[in-house]
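I would love for you to help me understand the pair of lines that follows before we discuss the fold together.
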Amino acid sequence: MATWQEFAESAPELAERVRARLAAHQHHVLATLRRDGAPRVSGTEVSWRGPDLVLGSMPGARKALDLRRDGRFALHANPGSAEDLIGGVDAKLAGRAVEVTGEEHRAWVEEAGPPSPDSHLFRLDLTEVTTTGVAADQTHLVITHWTPERGVRTFQRA
């Protein structure tokens, strides 16, 4: 697994594209695992705090309880409209969410001013990042995939 900063240092161009996609819209789709193993999708917002990509949650929200029990997640950046994707990429990230507690959580509450001081904060450690876009000549998809072990690999699909 890697922090956002480690990912960005390993794959700076890919990280720039993914960050731009995440920053283009406030709301994204988070997938977590319910207690019975079934997927749960929730809306979420993400931001950066130091070297980390983070997400917050209201106290006791189902997604937060899911992540506390099993930190595995998938995050699909809001693709926006079809026009937004022209010349751009669709971005997906996966990994493990780790709840931030203690002094670091208190500092976040003071800095960010979330609606409630007992809001959850999770650091998103990455196991993979994928972007999908259409080639400039519009003839095929270009899929770029990164993992900490294998780095960046690019595939084409007709």
